């Protein structure tokens, strides 16, 4: 399916992953200019790209960027049991395969490549960087899941029991936690939109999904110093879903030479579409300014890539 507005064209298609599952993918491209750079969306847990991330993608496409998204296995319009993550490695591999295939298209060679990860998608973005440390030019990390906040995490005894049960009933929805939608998104109309979106998972987290989220967030928290690419973190100061203190630790411990942290008083977890319009405008002003500044400066990866291609041509 394809559609077009005055400034942005939209397309969607299904691709097969390495395990034979159909994954839903989508893209938003500026129609009146060559893209300044490529942005790859990593959506949050229980969310999807084409509806909940649409306003984000359109804002960035209107700012001149090409935007690409994929619904993870078990999420949105992709195959798999809804809300179920069999393995976080599968999520990362699927994103890596799809995003790199787009980056390597002829028309995209030489363009800057950025990841935009929201919440659990922030963890995906950091793991994509870990998988290919020199491939991505940077990331926008929105309330990244480097640690799940204590408000929504079961106590350690319950976690221990549930972890053992994962071996027997991995898909069961029995993890006791607050309704994430209520604590993540400030504006009631947005909460209603998410609840009525059939492609967003509702209900308690499935056992193995919760286990995977806890395991990967703990792993990231222990290895923050391995993050070496440019990034900007944006985090609401009253976020009750992901832990702002770990975003602050990521900023301090990461070995990146180019890193920024923006925190927003009175803002919640869902900065991209769960806040008031005035607050969302402030958040996107920071994101777009950061992206445009880096695209204008260029990047040593692109210089190396172009030099390598020149050397190859001369050798022939």
Automatic annotation (TrEMBL):
InterPro entries: AB_hydrolase_1, AB_hydrolase_fold, Hydrolase_4, MAG_DAG_Lipase. It comes from the Eukaryota. PANTHER family: PHOSPHOLIPASE-RELATED (PTHR11614). Residues 33-272 form the Serine aminopeptidase S33 domain. It comes from Momordica charantia (Bitter gourd). This is Caffeoylshikimate esterase-like.
């Amino acid at each position: 399916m394809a559609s077009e507005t005055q400034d942005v064209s939209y397309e969607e298609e299904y691709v097969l992953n390495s395990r034979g599952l159909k994954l839903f993918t989508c893209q938003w491209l500026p129609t009146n200019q060559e893209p300044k750079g490529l942005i790859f969306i990593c959506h949050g847990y229980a969310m999807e790209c084409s509806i909940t991330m649409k306003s984000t993608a359109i804002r960035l496409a209107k700012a001149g960027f090409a935007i690409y998204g994929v619904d993870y296995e078990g999420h949105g319009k992709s195959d798999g049991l809804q809300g179920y993550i069999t393995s976080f490695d599968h999520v990362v591999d699927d994103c890596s395969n799809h995003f790199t295939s787009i980056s390597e298209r002829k028309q995209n060679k030489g363009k800057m490549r950025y990841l935009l990860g929201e919440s659990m998608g922030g963890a995906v973005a950091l793991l994509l960087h870990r998988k290919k440390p020199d491939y991505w030019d940077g990331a926008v990390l929105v309330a990244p899941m480097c640690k799940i906040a204590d408000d929504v995490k079961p106590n350690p005894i319950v976690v221990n029991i549930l972890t053992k049960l994962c071996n027997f009933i991995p898909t069961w929805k029995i993890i006791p936690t607050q309704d994430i939608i209520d604590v993540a998104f400030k504006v009631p109309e947005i909460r209603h939109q998410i609840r009525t979106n059939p492609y967003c998972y509702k209900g308690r987290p499935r056992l193995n999904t919760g286990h995977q989220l806890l395991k990967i967030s703990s792993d990231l928290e222990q290895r923050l110093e391995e993050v070496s690419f440019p990034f900007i973190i944006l985090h609401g100061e009253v976020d009750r879903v992901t832990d702002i203190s770990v975003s602050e630790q990521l900023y301090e411990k990461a070995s990146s030479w180019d890193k920024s942290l923006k925190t927003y008083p009175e803002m919640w977890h869902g900065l991209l579409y769960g806040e008031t319009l005035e607050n969302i405008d402030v958040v996107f002003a920071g994101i777009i300014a950061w992206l445009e500044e880096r695209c204008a400066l260029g990047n040593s990866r692109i210089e190396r890539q172009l030099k390598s291609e020149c050397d190859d041509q001369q050798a022939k």
